[in-house]
Design a protein that fits this description.
With 448 residues, the protein is mainly β. 15% of the residues lie in helices and 42% in strands.
Length: 448
């Protein structure tokens, strides 16, 4: 009996020790995890010194992640105080942390002077969350003798600007030339030397000049944004592309005083689709070759576009005296309503009173027009090609354009190609075969 009790007691002691040991290990593990979490929180949620009063602002999102709110860096957001330094400080902090988010909160208006957000030494995949409103100064002092950009992002890799906020250039003081503003007008939002950039959700309005520009960039996505300025605002391009490749623009509405989308030299692999354009000047490639320069544009697709009340529809424009080429362009499923000239190639482009006649020109070839329909106000088709460098490889199919006012006939000059279907109106002026000047052309044009 005693032996049985001793064995039973030993078993009970062993079980008790095992339970206690397990509880102790779990307690230590929980304490270790707590210490690690506390350390991580101290890295990612850093409350700047001197700005404790703004830390719990309604616009501040309290998350245990890399969030950098401009209110925490001294921004007032009242539309009057200068918030430029606060934006610069928030950017400098966000720049150091990969996949961080710089927040411009809703419910506030931020006055920001010209500023450059440099990404040359930044971590990648930063998000600029714009839910509030950023406005440009309307006095001349911040602009000095004239600047080309207002909000300038340079040399950034893996960057997204998104949200429901607004960038307002307050351009009316520039358009009507009041307030002694400088002659040089800035672009509202520019990206330079950047790659893997996404712009989505935001509104850009009333820019003094171009609203959104990409220069020397690669792998760009622009979608679900709104661009807006009056139809009579001068030189206010919606989106301007220059020396940029692999660009996609879609699901966007653009109303402005110049080209809805402008594609300049050095651009290739550009896809624009499901865009609503108007008022404005349409979607344009060029002007190219100004001041006897070489221009190269290739592999551009413009499809599923709606245009209303625009100067032109889909246009290619080049200056006399240039060199290089425009090739591999396709315009398809273009719906136009009361557009001046829906289809245009103009190799005599001149935006001043008089331009000198030149023999050389940017070569235009391999241009497809498919399913362009609607109404025009001036002329259905205008192909004005160079005397010495004719347009070649023009293809038209399913063109149906009716007059909205008085009827006008298509115009062609030195344009070669083919009609794949009957067209309305008939485009009988397009030449077939090969131009006798092609031999001269191949000698005098620089290849791209």
């Amino acid at each position: 009996m005693n032996r049985f009790n001793m064995k039973d007691l030993t078993l009970i002691i062993f079980i008790a020790f095992s339970v206690w040991s397990s509880s102790f290990e779990n307690c230590c593990a929980r304490e270790g995890r707590h210490r690690k979490q506390s350390k991580a929180a101290s890295v990612f949620v850093k409350k700047p010194n001197g700005y404790g009063s703004n830390y719990n602002h309604p616009g501040r999102r309290m998350l245990s992640s890399a969030i950098f709110n401009v209110l925490d860096y001294g921004a007032k957001g009242d539309g009057n105080a200068d918030d430029t330094k606060a934006f610069g400080a928030a950017w400098a902090a966000a720049c150091k942390v990969e996949a961080s988010t710089m927040v411009v909160p809703s419910g506030s208006v931020f006055l920001v002077k010209p500023i450059t957000f440099s990404g040359s030494s930044c971590a990648q995949n930063i998000v600029f969350q714009l839910d509030g409103k950023i406005i440009a100064p309307t006095s001349s002092q911040p602009w000095g003798s004239g600047l080309l950009e207002w909000l300038d992002f340079t040399e950034i890799t893996g960057f997204t600007i998104k949200g429901k906020g607004v960038i307002d250039g307050q351009g009316s003081v520039w358009w009507r030339n009041s307030g002694n503003m400088p002659r040089t007008k800035p672009t509202a939002l520019r990206f330079y030397g950047s790659s893997n950039v996404i712009v989505t959700g935001i509104t850009i309005q009333n820019s003094p000049q171009t609203h959104l520009k990409f220069d020397s960039c690669t792998t760009i996505q622009v979608y679900a944004i709104s661009v807006s300025s009056p139809g009579d605002s001068p030189n206010t391009d919606g989106i301007h592309l220059q020396n940029s490749q692999n660009v996609v623009i879609y699901g966007t509405g653009i109303a402005c005083g110049d080209d809805c989308v402008s594609i300049q030299t050095g651009c290739s692999n550009v896809d624009i689709h499901n865009v609503n354009c108007g008022p404005g000047h349409g979607i344009s490639i060029g002007g190219l070759g100004k001041d006897n320069t070489k221009a190269c544009v290739s592999n551009v697709t413009v499809r599923d576009i709606t245009m209303h009340d625009t100067l032109t529809g889909v246009r290619i424009k080049t200056w006399q005296g240039g060199s290089g080429s425009v090739q591999g362009i396709r315009f398809s499923n273009i719906q136009v309503s009361e557009v001046g000239t829906p289809i245009m190639i103009d190799q005599y482009y001149c935006d001043k009173g008089k331009c000198q006649n030149e023999s050389s020109a940017v070569r235009v070839s391999g241009i497809d027009y498919v399913n362009v329909k609607g109404t025009y106000k001036v002329k259905p088709v205008h192909f004005a090609c160079s005397d010495n460098v004719p347009c070649t490889g023009i293809s038209l199919a399913t063109i149906n354009l009716d007059q909205a006012a008085q009827e006008s006939q298509p115009f062609c000059w030195n344009a070669y190609g083919e009609l794949r279907t009957t067209t309305v109106p008939p485009i009988d002026c397009l030449r077939t075969g090969k131009s006798s000047s092609l031999r001269v052309q191949s000698k005098n044009i620089d290849s791209c």
